[in-house]
Amino acid sequence: MHELTITEQIVEIATRHGEKNEAEKITDLYLVIGELSTVIDDSVQFYWDLIAENTICEGANLHFKRIPAKFLCLECDHEFRLADGELTPCPHCQSNRMKILQGKEFHLDSINIV
Amino acid sequence: MTKIISIIEKVQNANDQLAAEIQEQLQQARLFSLNLMASPGAGKTSVIEKTLAELIPLYNIAAIDGDIATSIDADRAAEAGATAVQINTGGQCHIDANMLKIALGEFELDNFDLLLVENVGNLICPASFKLGTDKNVLIASIPEGDDKPYKYPGMYQDVDALIINKIDLLPYVDFDMDYFKQGVQMLNPDLLTFPISCKTGEGIESWTNWVIGQIKTTKSS
User: Fold this and answer.
1) For A5-36, how does the pLDDT look when each residue is reduced to its tens digit (9 = 90+)?
2) A3-69+103-113: what fold?
3) Cβ contact A87:B149 at 8 Å
4) pTM of the full predicted structure?
């Protein structure tokens, strides 16, 4: 449900950068979302039309780049991904001691303007 | 003509910056602060009441309670001896740094030793909004089930301490502690954990001793 606030932030950031670059309109936004970032792209998309209305973002297309979660096993240094999105011990040595290498990202990467 | 503008800005940047300001403000007041997060019904307010019962004789304590509606939680914290302020988020599923900043304006922070922030009951959204508190604490509870770390990794991966409440119910509920702890360990290795029961008082002392230690460290820093 926090996607409403988050969508407002996205419009704010894009508008600020768009205006700085004298954009008439923003046509595309490229967002990077990690698998562990608890942001649902469908929900952002749902709020988008409403929040972007009457801004230079109105009508812009949202593009989501999903970053899969990646873990490093602290016992055997094996790097692995979530199998079917599910958290499991290291598939190599079964250790529970692991570090998250990627998957927490959530940023606006770039925009296209005209 | 289309022009591509590279941005690379964290979407939560505005909130994170405000959280950094709050952190500085709290540090200047030498006040130790906790952000308590949990699902609805895990026992956040009960943990606060138990904590206050132990610490009110020793310290001046501020409490900020976030809820969608009502002032029930702030009333309970005030009843237990804290100076309490309620934030009604009006439907919002979390406290963000801006709401906390406004609520902090109600306190003379230099007069307090400990700040307890009770977040809105939710295992998803509060994880995305840093507040600038010293420590983020998650309160899990036995009746919620042992699969929560697997279902809510975002919440478990970033907290500094974990309270497992309602351990008095373990004999009555199918809760596999080893499975639960395995999930926690995978997301947050060697997380500081306090198994407690607000009902029987078990484990409360070890939790409050940790808080006291943190208050002392913050004071002398």
Assistant:
1) 899 999 999 999 999 999 999 999 999 999 88
2) hypothetical protein PF0899 fold (3.30.2320)
3) yes
4) 0.90
